[in-house]
Amino acid sequence: KAGVTQTPRYLIKTRGQQVTLSCSPISGHRSVSWYQQTPGQGLQFLFEYFSETQRNKGNFPGRFSGRQFSNSRSEMNVSTLELGDSALYLCASSQGVGESGYTFGSGTRLTVV
Amino acid sequence: GDSVTQMEGPVTLSEEAFLTINCTYTATGYPSLFWYVQYPGEGLQLLLKATKADDKGSNKGFEATYRKETTSFHLEKGSVQVSDSAVYFCALSSPNNAGNMLTFGGGTRLMVKP
């Protein structure tokens, strides 16, 4: 059974640009959530999608957005990149209810220069 | 809101020593509790979980018991190995949220010396 796949693994962007990250969940999992990991702030929740609908949203500016497709794959987009957006972005998938556990991908390391 | 507090690291132990990483939480209702482990350059791996009070999660020699009375979920292992060196995260998922959302502690780095 394939795990959660995140692409690309590494990305370098310039301030002001935008970026799109992709996440393919485990087959059969309908929930995909995104997290930002930085040394200063730790792991912070960005948003969660279930059956193409955003169910939960964290406390991030509107520059951070996402979407989910009918095959449950998800993308997140960050516009007008700032240096502080440099982080490891992790996505996690689950079947539905969170109590069953979340499976994380290896993450996308974004560096903004 | 929900929050998770972990002991700060790094925790440095010799091989075969006993490990305890403390975790306490604040949440409304009855959250599910998790321990995740992160190895260098990788994502998070679920180590163990507990979904109700007095449940004990266990995996690979690690154990944690859901203590509602003390709002704690401390991670323990009787004999650590060098391969256990990693960062450990305590997390909760609250049933009061509309969907799936994990609230994480700050992480505890464990270093095991041969």
Task: List strands and helices in order, with pairings.
The complex is a heterodimer of chains A (113) and B (114).
Chain A: E1 5-7, E2 10-13, E3 19-24, E4 31-38, E5 42-50, E6 53-57, E7 64-68, E8 74-78, E9 87-94, E10 103-104, E11 108-112
Parallel strand pairs in A: 2-11
Antiparallel strand pairs in A: 1-3, 3-8, 4-5, 4-9, 5-6, 7-8, 9-10, 9-11
Chain B: E1 3-6, E2 11-14, E3 19-21, E4 23-26, E5 32-38, E6 44-50, E7 56-59, E8 62-65, E9 75-77, E10 86-93, E11 102-104, E12 108-113
Parallel strand pairs in B: 2-12
Antiparallel strand pairs in B: 1-4, 3-9, 5-6, 5-10, 7-8, 8-9, 10-11, 10-12
In short, what is this structure?
The complex is a heterodimer of chains A (113) and B (114). By secondary structure, chain A is mainly beta. Chain A is built from no helices and 11 strands.
Q: How would you sum up this structure, described in words?
A:
The complex is a heterodimer of chains A (113) and B (114). Chain A is an all-beta fold. In chain A, 0% of the residues lie in helices and 53% in strands. Chain A has strands spanning 5-7, 10-13, 19-24, 31-38, 42-50, 53-57, 64-68, 74-78, 87-94, 103-104, 108-112. In chain B, strands 2, 5, 6, 10, 11 and 12 form a six-stranded mixed beta sheet that branches. In chain B, strand 10 (86-93) and strand 11 form a beta hairpin. Chains A and B meet through strand 4, strand 5, strand 9 and strand 10 of A and strand 5, strand 6 and strand 11 of B.
